[in-house]
Records
---
Amino acid sequence: METFVQLLIGGVLQGGIYALGAFGLSIIFGVLRVLNVAHGDFLMLGGMLTYWLYTTWGLPPWGALLAVFPVFFLGGLLVERTLIRPIAGMGQHEFLVASILITLGIALAIEDVTAFALTQPVKGIDYFLPPIRLGTLVVSSLRLIFLALIVALTVALHLFLQRSLMGKALRAVMEDREGALLAGIDVQRAATVAFGLGTALTATAGVFFVTLIPVDPHIGIPLTLKYLAIIVLGGVGNLPGALAGSVLLGLSESVVSFYVGAEWSLTVAFFVLIGVLLLRPRGLLG
């Protein structure tokens, strides 16, 4: 029972970390129709910045959130304006291919520059808090804090999309781009905000990631593949579906890593994807 509870907490937390990045990729693809291959690399950079803030300034991971989110939101705005917007006038097929090539170039550049600049490996943040003891059960208080923060961020994102003017504009563009144009919504502005928001969300996931798992400059593209599996599992543009797919993947990885081996963590994402799509081809929530 103790092992099961630990695996359950670890799997849900891992799924929550995946969910933040998956939300970002789903919003970017839903609004811009851009398949951002560099998405996982922004998570890696968010983890690197968190590690630097902790080792240099002693800033705890939840304090790093206040720096990571705005920095990468502005970074996402810059990437969209300088590299994505110039190709926005292409046809749909050409735009998709060009966006994949551009973001792949961004991913490779980020990984090469980071690997060159990194003087020592990032082993993760060893931030200790006293565990919570429930009888014979010992639960990591740090993991519970992270889980609470991820839930709070998810609720904040939901409220933003449901109640704010910009959030409603993003939802309208995701659901019907032509209808949004006819309704007078500034689709270009929505695209810029979507890319910034999506980049900030995945970088925020990196804050939690680096505290639990070592960060390597070359983890970005494998993480992007996991995010793609998640948004296909949940249905493209479906945020509740992305959450369900993330938790399912996190739990599957937790169980497989414990009983089989951590090296199977990337493979299990595609076994889960194939299994779900055989049963529900339109995703978990259609």
---
Amino acid sequence: MIRSIPAFLSSMAVMAAAPLPRPSPDFAIHLTPSGQVSPTQYKGKVVVLAFISTSCPHCQHTTQVLSGLQREFGPHGLQALAAAFNPMANMLVPDFIKQYQPSFPVGYTERLDVHAYLDHSEQLQMFVPVLVFIDRKGMIRHQYLGDDPFQQNQEKNLRDTIEALLKEPAGSKQ
């Protein structure tokens, strides 16, 4: 029985990983006080989409890092976006924006919509921040959960991934 547990856990990890690359599905981030934004409206740009919790210190830090990268790489074709999906996010996002002053749109969405977008089972735990990289053609190329090793050296890894995607011409294949 003990030998089957690691095999089961290994198969769960494989089941948790969404296939990449895949098209970025239509997805709405609700802005406050009104309006919405979607990653699909930025086709032709490299999009970094962060799924966050407004009370998570790692998410707050990620927002600040993405703000700097947005200012640096925005003129070269980067668009950062963030969607909070913690309880009462619709009420918490305005204060989050006021405190962290992101240089990109930050809004809110529903947890079920996040799981559907990420192709992530609702039965599996999901740590934040979740980072999704969408290339200029609207394809999700990378997706990292909050407990992924990518997050350990986040700023360098974000920069390296953004720079690599920005170097690709809009018509290139992967």
---
Amino acid sequence: MQGLRKICDQKNWLLMLDEVQCGIGRTGTWFAHQHAAILPDVMTLAKGLGSGMPIGACLAAGKATGTFQPGNHGSTFGGNPLACTAASTTLKIIEEDKLMENAHTIGEFLVQEFKTRLVTCPVW
């Protein structure tokens, strides 16, 4: 990821990341790219954002800010009031219930178990 960020910076390209499957705390941080200590220029979110309520988001930062103008980007699951309330509540619960810390703890446990069990597996 850091190498990709570097290439995009050198070539003046936008780095666009899809966090639909891995974002919203699923990897122990708000976004999976945070593990690589990089920032994308554009990031897409959905699925976990609304806890089952269809919603999607496309965020732009840095040099990508202002790239999208009103009317030139649409979304099937954009921000209607019900979906936005679901997303806001989802984010609040993730923080209040410390779900990212739990994802990190469970993730570390799974990695350790895989390492232990795969090394001692009699098939190998």
---
Amino acid sequence: MAGFVDRYGVKRPYAICFAAWCLASAAIGLMPTLWGLILMRLIVGAMEAVVVPGDVSLDRQQFYPNDSGTAVGFYMLGSKFGPAIGAPLAAG
């Protein structure tokens, strides 16, 4: 997916993948067979692949070169600590 982001920019691939991601996520509940569920999960996973290259590219565009590493670091920090903290809170 990084190639799509590099070639077409961030907005269009991100929007297309996000729409397909949402549709596949919604379709998971409609799947009557295991193979349909597996196919929808594969589509969700493939569409999620645009998130990291898209966000890193946006960080590089929006921040000064000396600050973009810090912005990417905070993004990566949040992507790891968010589920680690949020999952136990949601379950409790």
